[in-house]
Amino acid sequence: MARVSVEIADHIATVTLTRGDKMNALDPAMIDAIIEAGEGLIDNSDVRVVVLQGEGKAFCAGLDVMSFAAMAGSDPEEIAMPRTHGDSNRFQQVAMVWQKIPVPVIAALKGVAFGGGFQIAMGADIRIAAPDTKMAIMEMKWGLIPDMGGMAILPMLARSDVIRKLTYTATQITAVQAEVWGLVTELADDPEAAAMELAREIAGKSPSAIRTAKRLIGYAEANAGQVADVLLEESREQVTLIGKAHQMEVIAANLQKRPPVFKD
């Protein structure tokens, strides 16, 4: 059965985890389907923003323990160490692929976002969550550490002590607490509707400026503290936008008090 659906309309790609009867738990087929869905959007020039959501009552409950029980007898080095997707292994790519997509990704969270599901959510640019959503770095419950990209992403979002407490204890928190700690962007009673509303707003902005903004933010995060390099990159990226077709259309639309219309 299909594990992920992708629908594209009005320059918005809606990616839905479709294993709702299992709280969208990650079995091997879903791992592969999520990677395929994300990688399939990287070079799609029609897409201006992505909404990532889960079918049914939950976003994602993390790894399907029964599905991965067979891995217990496998060589862990053969599973974890090969870099199968650039700088990531197969499991890390499930979260990291959303950062590699050149347009903003908005995750709509509800029910639970545990373990791998938590790390997938962290891979998005923005997280909108229902207040009662339960979230946890769950791996310590099973005697493991987060290994799906979490340690590459979390230090950019939350304080070290917060990351340590959640990692050491596998404590479940609500989205209300997660927002306080910087892990959730905002709360909404209907996170999927709120995510779509925000997606429409972003889709109406200059496509080239939005892609450039995501690229520049990523560069600044990866080069934190390298002020001269970041300032130079900021100027270099701005040069690619000034006076170009999308920027000129934005200016014209503002002066004429109308929505901009961008030619692909």
Strand arrangement in the largest pleated sheet? 1-2-3-4-6-9
* CATH topology grouping of the largest domain: 2-enoyl-CoA Hydratase, Chain A, domain 1
Gyration radius over CA? 19 Å
Number of separate helices: 12
Oligomer type: single chain
Strand fraction equals 5-15%
Q: Specify the helix fraction band.
A: 40-55%
CATH class of the largest domain: Alpha Beta
Could you give a short account of the major beta sheet? 6 strands, mixed
Mean pLDDT: 95
Order of helices and strands: EEHEHHHEEHEEHHEHEHHHH
N- and C-termini, Cα separation: 35 Å
Query: Could you say how many structural domains there are in total?
Result: 2
The CATH homology group name of the largest domain: 2-enoyl-CoA Hydratase, Chain A, domain 1
Structural key phrases:
264 residues; alpha/beta; 2-enoyl-CoA Hydratase, Chain A, domain 1; Lyase 2-enoyl-coa Hydratase, Chain  A, domain 2; 2 domains; three-stranded mixed β-sheet; 12 helices; 44% helix; Enoyl-CoA hydratase/carnithine racemase
